[in-house]
Design a protein that fits this description.
Strand content: 5-15%
Radius of gyration: 23 Å
Largest sheet: 7 strands, mixed
CATH class of the largest domain: Alpha Beta
CATH topology of the largest domain: Aspartate Aminotransferase, domain 2
Shape: globular
Helix content: 25-40%
Structural class: alpha/beta
Number of helices: 12
Distance between the termini: 51 Å
């Protein structure tokens, strides 16, 4: 009896699993987007115009918040959140050791100091059981990142914050519509931030939103957002700076695109959930592959479908990232758009290792600051994640459906079932 012939990996000259052009780009553009954007383009105000104020009201209504401020980026919204929580010179803000750099550099923007806490490897989010050990008399707030659209354990974190009188900032830049215990992101902390850049579940090209249910925090954030003024561009401005301010406002054209996409967001999130369910089912039980973990009480938005490789299952020697990189290249060769979301843990980044954000050692040597040292070895779960993960975004998104998800899963299985054919890149010479 003849054995079934093993398929040749595309990276080694075999046929691609997914044809060119089969997976469509995000976001899909339709007449709704054209109507909103063209109306803005033909309007009279292209700075902070009527679409901006409408976007704030509509997003606040969609998410269920009392106040919202549309910004030119999620990073700007994060800085506004730090400021609105009264974090300043010498104050410390706890943040996960693995996230996008903005989750921590926003703390530096107002002379406060990031204090890193390791992640829980299973969820990739801030480990709530490791926060208390990082709290000092200088701690002012906790930034909680809902990474890849899965909310952190906000019950444990907010309980700890109340115990120590700390503010909680939700970095929900990837968390649109995600839920924990049936509450949406943006409703557990004192304030929250969202991003609308190209990759986000709500895309307006660039842009972001600051939300809160606290009027005082909203007013404070709005001052930082517009030159330190106390009146918004739609009010009678006196053009007087009352505090240190930036220019973080959105513009009418971008807000119009965001409004159009918001009308379709619930449908897009449903598509992502359907595609993720197919990937989970199709990849279940695949040896050497660690699937996304969704704890009880969580409803992720599936911003990203993050996979981890278990190199030991393949008998792969250290360093583990070499095998992960070989898998990643082979999966890409099969036609799957995939990549490594973040290659470095935050404490390993130069800005923190050099402790020289503003020059001359500031803010770490500024008056009132404590001597905070960053040892990358103190965050093993974050480092392990960096070396083993790769992720899928576009295949989850509309207009791609479950047929795309099945082909993507088949391509990943093909690579892992033929992992012996992979060529590892040689280690760089020291």
């Amino acid at each position: 009896m003849n054995e079934k012939k093993r398929p040749v990996l595309a990276i080694n000259g075999g046929e691609r699993s997914i044809p060119e052009g089969f997976i469509k780009n995000w976001p899909p553009i339709d007449p709704v987007d054209e109507e909103y954007v063209l109306a803005s383009l033909r309007g009279e105000n292209h700075t902070f115009g009527p679409n901006c104020t409408a976007f704030e009201k509509e997003f606040a209504a969609w998410n269920g918040n009392q106040y919202a401020i549309t910004t030119n980026s999620g990073t700007a919204a994060l800085h506004m959140a730090v400021y609105s929580c009264d974090c300043g010179s010498g104050d410390e803000v706890i943040v996960p050791a693995y996230s996008w750099s903005s989750s921590a550099t926003c703390i530096l923007h107002h002379n406060a100091i990031p204090v890193f806490v390791d992640i829980d490897y299973a969820t990739m989010n801030l480990d709530p059981d490791k926060i208390e050990a990082a709290i000092t008399e200088k701690t002012k707030a906790i930034i909680v990142v809902h990474l890849h659209g899965l909310m952190a354990d906000m019950e444990k974190i907010t309980r700890l914050a109340r115990k120590y009188g700390l503010k909680v900032i939700e970095d929900a830049c990837q968390g649109h519509g995600a839920r924990f215990q049936e509450k949406k992101s943006g409703h557990w902390g004192d304030c929250a931030t969202f991003s609308f850049n190209q990759n986000k579940c709500l895309c307006s090209g660039e842009g972001g939103m600051f939300v809160t249910d606290n009027r005082e925090m909203w007013e404070k954030a709005r001052t930082l957002w517009s030159f330190g003024e106390t009146r918004s561009p739609v009010e009678s401005r006196d053009y007087h700076a009352y505090a240190l301010g930036w220019m973080y406002r959105n513009n009418d054209l971008t807000a119009a695109f965001g409004r159009a996409q918001l009308t379709k967001l619930d449908r897009y999130l449903a598509v992502q959930a359907e595609n993720a369910a197919v990937l989970l089912e199709e990849l279940k039980g695949q040896p050497g592959l660690i699937l996304p973990f969704v704890p009880e009480g969580h409803q992720p938005n599936w911003y990203n479908f993050t996979l981890r490789i278990d190199p030991e299952a393949f008998g792969c020697p250290s360093p583990t990232f070499r095998f992960r990189d070989a898998v990643l290249k082979a999966v890409r060769a099969e036609g799957v758009p995939t990549g490594i979301w973040q290659s470095y843990i935050l404490p390993r980044m130069t800005v923190f290792q050099s402790r020289n954000g503003y020059g001359q050692g500031c803010p770490w040597i500024c008056p009132n600051a404590r001597n905070v040292i960053y040892n990358p070895e103190a965050y093993p779960a974050a480092q392990k994640h960096c070396e083993t993960h790769f992720g899928l975004t576009t295949p989850l998104r509309a207009p791609n459906g479950t047929g795309v998800a099945r082909k993507v899963a088949a391509a990943i299985r093909k690579v892992l079932e033929n992992a012996g054919e992979l060529n590892l890149e040689p280690e760089p010479k020291k």
